[in-house]
Structure to design on (248 residues):
């Protein structure tokens, strides 16, 4: 009696073939090698940067720390941005092998980095309070505008300064406002009004979408009386900021 063995082919579309697996592994391996190659290039570049700084008479107490800083904060930001205060202005190269510039005696990498950190923290501090003032100004502007012309009064050109050729600025502003509303139509601050009020978003919701440039354009097209009132309110708010606390 002869036994017949039937071959059974099991096909599973969800299981990659051996060829597909090998292709994927080669792809991953290539990606890893490229990443490692790039990392080696970066480290080599930073070693060259540190050597160049030392050749230029800059004191670096810890190469490992300098390497970490240059990786995280960028050579250009730290060095090129703050070196001018430490460059020896009397230095002149005497041969082609001499560096193009030298640091004054005693100048250190830590001093340059300290200036960079101080400037960075100062900019962040100013930005923080600038944003507070900006939000307060937009709130006052929307409040004063709605008192005079209603919460959707910005839709009417007559409620802005249309003297001389300003009407063209107002038309352009309305076009930009329409873009802002459309681009943010799914935003929580807009979606209800966009759907339920035929795209008529109240000004207090609209200004919350404005960046500083759009706020400036809106304000510049307002009537003089409104500008004065908004400026007075902003002045009183700015006087209330305790700069001793900010700079403390």
């Amino acid at each position: 009696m002869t036994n017949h063995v039937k071959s059974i082919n099991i096909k599973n579309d969800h299981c990659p073939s051996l060829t597909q697996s090998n292709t994927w592994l080669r792809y991953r391996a290539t990606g890893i090698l490229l990443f490692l190659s790039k990392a080696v290039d970066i480290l080599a570049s930073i070693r060259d940067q540190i050597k160049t700084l030392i050749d230029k008479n800059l004191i670096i107490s810890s190469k490992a720390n300098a390497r970490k800083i240059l990786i995280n904060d960028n050579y250009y930001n730290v060095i090129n941005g703050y070196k001018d205060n430490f460059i020896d202005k009397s230095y002149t190269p005497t041969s082609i092998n001499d560096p193009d510039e030298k640091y004054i005696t005693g100048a250190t990498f830590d001093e340059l980095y300290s200036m960079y950190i101080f400037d960075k923290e100062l900019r962040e501090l100013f930005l923080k309070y600038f944003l507070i003032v900006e939000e307060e100004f937009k709130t006052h502007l929307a409040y004063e505008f709605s008192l005079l012309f209603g919460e959707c009064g910005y839709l009417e050109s007559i409620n802005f300064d249309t003297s001389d050729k300003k009407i063209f600025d107002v038309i352009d502003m309305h076009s930009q406002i329409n873009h802002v509303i459309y681009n943010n139509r799914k935003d929580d601050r807009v979606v209800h009004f966009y759907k339920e009020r035929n795209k008529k978003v109240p000004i207090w919701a609209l200004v919350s979408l404005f960046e500083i440039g759009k706020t400036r354009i809106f304000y510049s097209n307002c009537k003089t009386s409104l500008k004065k009132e908004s400026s007075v309110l902003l002045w009183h708010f700015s006087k209330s900021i305790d700069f001793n606390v900010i700079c403390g």
Remarks:
- Residues 34 and 174 are 50 Å apart (CA to CA).
- Residues 109-149 form the longest helix (41 residues).
- The chain has a mean pLDDT of 80.
- Residues 125-247 form one domain.
